[in-house]
């Protein structure tokens, strides 16, 4: 039972990095899609744990912030860029509502 308790405490640790699979699951996409996004310079910020081609991790708050930056106001069709969007990052929403 001690192992289970450790797993819970590790999950709640704000400093714990999410694996690519865990971040992808939060986003509802596959880990390979997330890897493609990284290669294309899209998606949430990540932490590279070493040299090129080394494992990467995601801070939970970065994934949540990225999700928040994609929020589109239903009334205007515009992204809510004031919440969590980073400068220089595209929100993915059109600058004007589609007709």
TrEMBL record:
InterPro entries, A to Z = DNA-bd_dom_put_sf (IPR009061), HTH_17 (IPR041657), WH-like_DNA-bd_sf (IPR036388)
Coiled-coil annotation: which residues?
Answer: none
Name the source's superkingdom.
Bacteria
Show the ranges annotated as biased composition (Low complexity).
Answer: 78-93
Q: Name the segments for region: Disordered.
A: 78-99
Which ranges carry the Helix-turn-helix domain?
17-70
Pfam families named among the record's database cross-references: HTH_17
Q: Mind telling me what this protein is named? A: Transcriptional regulator, AlpA family
What organism, scientifically named, is this protein from? Collinsella stercoris DSM 13279
């Amino acid at each position: 039972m001690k192992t289970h308790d450790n797993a819970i405490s590790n999950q709640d640790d704000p400093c714990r990095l999410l694996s690519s699979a865990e971040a992808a699951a939060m986003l509802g996409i596959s880990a390979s899609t997330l890897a493609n996004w990284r290669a294309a310079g899209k998606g949430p910020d990540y932490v590279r744990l070493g040299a090129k081609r080394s494992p990467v991790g995601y801070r939970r708050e970065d994934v949540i912030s990225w999700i928040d930056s994609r929020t589109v106001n239903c009334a205007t069709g515009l992204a809510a860029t004031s919440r969590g969007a980073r400068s220089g990052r595209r929100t993915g929403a059109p600058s004007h509502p589609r007709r």
